[in-house]
What we know:
By secondary structure, the chain is mainly alpha-helical. The chain has helices at about 1-25, 45-55, 75-80, 100-115, 130-145, 150-165, 170-185, 195-200, 205-220, 220-250, 270-290, 295, 325-335, 380-390, 395-400, 420-455, and strands spanning about 35-40, 90-100, 120, 305-310, 355-365, 365-375, 410-415.
Amino acid sequence: MEKFKKFAAPAIGAFALLLILFICKSSPVSKLWKGYVTLSVPVQTDASLVGDVLEEAGCEGCISLEGQEAQDADDGYSERKFLYFFDRDKAARIYYIPDAFASQASSAARLLQARFHVDAAIGSRASFPFLTLLVCVAAFLALLRSAENKSVYSLASLPALFYAFCNPFCAAAAAVCLELYSLYLGQRLWRRKGALPALVSNSVAVAFAAAALLLSLAAGFSRGLFFLLNLASAFSLLFLLFNIQTEQDKKARFLPVLIRSAGAVNSVNVKTLKKAFFVSAEIFVLFALLCAGTDFLSSGGKKGLFFPAPTEYNGKASEFPLMEDYFVHKWNRAVFQYRSLNKDFPKVPQDGERVEMTHYEKTKDGIKARKELALAYNAAFRKEASDALDKTESPAVEKLWKAQGKKFSVAYKSGGTEEAGFGLVAALLLAALLPLFCALAPRLKFKMETLAYAA
């Protein structure tokens, strides 16, 4: 039982916390539609101008509002399709360009901006913004190089890097950089007498840890909560390492003892303060990425706009038409000529619904009626309707749905990346200045004391 508490419990706890981080991972950049990138322009932009520029850039198979055929079946299907070509607030018009012409679409967007001053933007093509994670890894390696207890620092930093991977946001990455520096200062006190009281009384280490937590909370409550899970996982791993080293010490014939206590060790010195400048530079890079928005993290995107995008299928009715609505629409158009205008029919057919034609034949026994199957709403009918999309050259929006390859629902999603609100920008700027302040404060204090002494 004692070994379970010392070894198994902290290992299981750390793993469980990291697993929660992985399950709840998120990304600020995502590809909205499989097989297509989106081009958005202000809604008042001349549609013919956009069409001409896309054609000039070499884009083919573009799905646009103007390319949709009007198909009347008294079911509102055509009108509902229009939702796919506007953002939630009807401020932007959306075009869907096949992935094969993604680079040409980017050229078209730049052309619209430069020549015609149209605020055009290409939706995100990247599935994961690696730059934020690379900044954290660079900070980790730079601090690891001069760390005295490399194994301690590496193990404690593992949850922080995993947190940055699961939450690749600029603010979250900046919080990780601050945490890494705090861990870098703390590792110098490892296994020294009075290490914990000395660490708690270390104003610089505490300031960095507190700033990291506050910055993660500024990025969102959930990210702040996940940051606490990262800290808890780091403490569990350090507790596990301490117990392992303690057990090894019991078996050793000779045990070296650190002479100086933690209180006698100056963890903040010229060597560590130089690293603070590097951490500050790293956070300034993240600050630039946040302010630049999707131009750095992806191929571009419209911040503040919400575009139609596929979501997990929930089986509920949607305001957006889907493939099933397309099949129903095709059925209603096909059977319209067979239906009586004096009778109401359900707009959504049941699977297996049939339309039969009555034929009259003259036989030796007289005229007899014979029924012949004209249409049936079944899997064969739906497959035929789906295959018809591949044969048509029309840039129908149904091709966009079919490219997703599975059942899905549609909802409005952000077309950009991490929102760079004023509060978050200010918090990130203060976080970038904190290492500079901690590095310069001793020198400023020394100069002020020198001036005071001279006076």
